[in-house]
Amino acid sequence: MSTRPDLGGRLGIRLPILQAPMAGGATTPELVAAVSNAGGLGALGAGYMQPEAIAEACRAVRRLTDKPFQVNLFVPDSGPNEGAPAADANAALAPFRAELGLPEPEIANRFAPDFARQAEAALSADVPAFSFTFGIPDEAILRAFREKGVTVIGTATTLAEALTLEDTGLVDVVVAQGMEAGGHRGTFLVDYEQGLVGLLPLLQELQAKLRLPVVAAGGIMTGQGIAAAMRAGAGAAQLGTAFLTCDECGIPEVYKRTLETGRDDGTALTRAFSGKPARGLRNRFIAEMAEANPPIAPYPVQNTLTKDIRAAAARQGRPEFLSLWAGQGVALCRRLPASQLMAALEREMAAG
Ligand SMILES: Cc1cc2nc3c(=O)[nH]c(=O)nc-3n(C[C@H](O)[C@H](O)[C@H](O)COP(=O)(O)O)c2cc1C
């Protein structure tokens, strides 16, 4: 077991379970509050949200729980966030739009919300914990959270990334994201393929080399899995895919139904939906984009370009064109209210 500071005490949670922040509508205030009320740490994935929406969502969570929760943001990299969208990447999407009966969309020329203003919204909302992925925010931002007593949580996919987070002296907790994880890769120091380290080697390395407490993420679906991660050095586990099929989760029904058919050999990493590598259920969009190999715009441009396709696919119940983010443990997902999933995880942890 870890000799690091007690993570549960630090985060104010009874169970060592973090519901992963999942941007894009999954982590509704109802889901966040249900997890926190059950003794875990609920998380609002606010990466795509405008500052006003973050403030409102935090108020909504607070109406449903007085327990701690966290807000998560995407650290921007140096890629373009304004200007004309890439015409060649957009042209490659025409066949999908045609099949969905979509017109050529008006593409916004601003692609992602302003990070500093998002962080300011989270700071003003007095959240107990703040987490981030895709990089490290500016020192001034980290310092502002720290000075307010907010627990700061960074994401690492390699030992070097974890040590870089620790070296800032402004991060309290590191989420170790194994290659099994659903959704976007948090890798920020190396090419994403080099950052595909399995959760178990990553946990063992961090156990040996990192002083900060570690949260294990990637493919964990059961209480036994949480217990195993903790034996390998984690102070808690972060589960994303396991919460996607909860009643309170905001993803479209067709996405939930497709997750129930998911298999360990059925996921793939793709840049085709957003421009950033992410793991999801392999479907026609991923396969045809891989086959055609067209230019793909960098994140967040590609994400903006495919927005109408993903929205229409959800409306029309067409999972073959949806981004079905999921981890390698997807076959173990359960259709339950979040409180029941939390109770099951607690029972299994005790048994495991
Ligand atoms: C649908 C989905 C959306 C995600 N969005 C985010 C996000 O907004 N921020 C973040 O830090 N991680 C995000 N992740 C990654 C999770 O934090 C975590 O690493 C992952 O869910 C763990 O693997 P698992 O899905 O197998 O449990 C997302 C994962 C999924 C499945």
UniProtKB/TrEMBL annotation:
GO molecular function, a single term: nitronate monooxygenase activity
Keyword Flavoprotein: yes
Protein name, entry field: Nitronate monooxygenase
InterPro entries referenced in this protein's UniProt entry, alphabetically: Aldolase_TIM, NMO
Stored CDD domains: NPD_like (cd04730)
Gene Ontology process terms (BP): response to toxic substance
Taxonomic lineage: Bacteria, Pseudomonadati, Pseudomonadota, Alphaproteobacteria, Rhodospirillales
Signal peptide coordinates: none
Organism field: Ferruginivarius sediminum
Catalytic activity: 3 propionate 3-nitronate + 3 O2 + H2O = 3 3-oxopropanoate + 2 nitrate + nitrite + H2O2 + 3 H(+)
